[in-house]
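User: I'll paste a sequence; please echo it back and then give the predicted structure.

Assistant: Echoing your sequence first, then the prediction.
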Amino acid sequence: MKKILLITYVFTIITTLAAQDYPKAILPGDYPDPTVMREGEDYYMTHSPFYYAPGFLIWHSRDLINWEPICRAMPEYEGSAMAPDLLKYKGKYYIYYPAAGTNWVIWATDIKGPWSKPVDLKVSGIDPGHITDENGNRYLYVNEGEVIQLTEDGLATIGEKKQVYDGWKYPEQWETECMCLESPKLNYHNGYYYLTSAQGGTAGPATSHMVVAARSKSILGPWENSPYNPIVHTYSSTDNWWSKGHGTLIDDVNGNWWIIYHAYAKGYHTLGRSTLIEPIEWTSDGWYRTKSTAKPIKVSQKIKHGLQLSDDFDRPQLGLQWTFWQEYAPASLNFINQTLMVKAKGNTPANARLLLTTVEDKNYETQVTVNVGVGNVAGLVLFYNEKAYSGITSDGKKFTIYRDAENKFEVPNKIGKKFIAKIQNQGNRIRIQVSKEGTEWITLVENLNVSSLHHNNYKGFYALRIGLLSAGKGGADFSRFRYRNAIPQEKDMSAYLMVCHKDETHGLYMAVSHDGYTFTALNDGKPVMAGDTIAYQKGIRDPHIYRGPDGAFYLAMTDLHVFAKRDGYRETEWERDGKVYGWGNNRGLVLMKSWDLINWKRTNIRFDQMSAAMSEIGCAWAPEVTYDEHKGKLMIYFTMRFKNEANKLYYVYVNDDFDTIETLPQILFEYPNEKVSAIDGDITKVGDKYHLFYVAHDGPAGIKHAVSDRANGNFEFDPRWYDYEPKACEAPNVWKRIGEDKWVLMYDVYSVNPHNFAFIETSDFVNFKNLGRFNEGVMKTTNFTAPKHGAIIQITTSEAEKLENYWEQVKNYTLY
């Protein structure tokens, strides 16, 4: 037993030392303007608090990846505090920061406090950066390349500011907000002072922000710009992170260097700016630049990472996850019997008393039990600022639902003064519900778009935070505040959803199974989407559905009608000459995204319009979606050929909104015999391996298998045939049985009449058990036959019930 434990321990250490890819988000959510310092083996970091008080949440780490919150340093301050610099000098910790038109400093002898009251340095500028020269003289840099000397204690200035650095001139055609030279952070290394600055503006276009570097032998310059500028920058809106900038350099205990900076998650300005990290390498000519891989810092014990947001209010003071908005009013709070009592202020969300907490997920759910006091109005909101918010309040008699700050509506409150309010935010689309006991929920509004509630529209550099609100008179009680990432995991699953098409209609069909064996078609066996309403060719084929890492559903289909002439949609058999472009030639896909399987956003893609190189595309068939973890992007892979050559499998990357192809097609897999077509790829990740099942036309069409350690290629050819069919088959799709280490490989036996699906099952992807075809073995259908080219995913009980109820209502409505 001891041997086994020892082997396990060694393996754990080895895996933690493996090289990892960067950048990494170490604090997702609203943690902008990071400043980091090292003290021996300990690292400390803080960020801009703006109007959130108490300010300057300080984090502690031993490996720069895992961070624990330890204190809030500053209860009260003037104005909006931002862009601090955290450091230790001669036994004292300092935080320099700008607010209310001047720069301030607070200090402490213990990082956990108590911290001093703010000291006004009486110097203008923003984003202070502290540095000490070789003689112990202290200086403070601010924006616009200006610097001023500090007194020995660092609590006052000497002389006047002077401008010593002009910044780096970036190309004129770059799309930015402004020059905005700011965020000076300074380090001394190998005989040089290095000045790390930000330029380009911190928001606006995706490509606005950047980190630039300069060096000097003197702390006062002259400064020489780095030939490697910009050190960090978002070059394209296809990047996963927008407006990357405001960097701080830090060395670790092993002598390696890192840069920590902020950025917006692509398309999610509402979350604010996350804190990211990348490794740094020093060049032979004495400069630094980022690199893509590095070994993590070895630690004997990892820190429990992150900030716990859920709260039972069982402490006698406010937890570190909470802040007030534009005030610090601890006297307005009482903690009794796991209940937070909040005295009221104001009369609307714009001026009410608010307790706010930062969210970090694109798909989350939050709820709280509210008990409204006499004359009080209380609720749960998502709050950006006084002009941008959404949520629910109640006075006990009615619920007021705020779509935004300008639009609201009211409904009767039949629950009473005590109720549970819940907000589900799925990719900036929110659902607001209320309940008496938390068992049955009343939906008051859903699919409410809050994506516009961010800095680019309302300024301020804040984030859309969860808020507990108390307004009017008296006070409100809050209990059992809950927050969770709402992306379903396998433990949440209880049903299966199948999508497929039929030759008769070229429409999309859906079927649900609650046991993974018997499937019942929705909409009484009729299409749930008509192909002639969503496709250029007036028909769809080969549907595939995938649940993305954000929890949303991604549906990809071939835009093709093989009987369009028969059905009167065109005058020719194919769009183009079949002798030149082959059977079933088409040029596009239909892409759809949904959060609930009912409301879908559609985009039609034409590959021939992407590039001149794609003008002679012969087909684009059988698209499927997966997530490339290495790239951090959704990947569509599909069958494609040019003119009438052999088919191969290609892939492209697509944005999270599923409406823009970001790259030109690249080969994913081709058959060893270049004259043989490989089509209908299906990728399943199990452990650290990607299993590709595909159709080989090396004789009668059948299913083959290839394995890789990455999603986008390097699949190793296996000559074995995996299907059990004596006749031709296609369209492999692998799905996992809920709660079991069993995977089912489903494929379309198109060579029989009527068409049918066949199934085989495995636990190791080597040995397979034949389950037979639909209605010829253990797999059954109840109200449909002849499905074509299907795919199956797991869904939750609520998703299945909502989907079934919706289509039952549609059927009943149609009957009347």
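Residues 1-17 have pLDDT under 50 and may be disordered. The longest helix spans residues 797-815.
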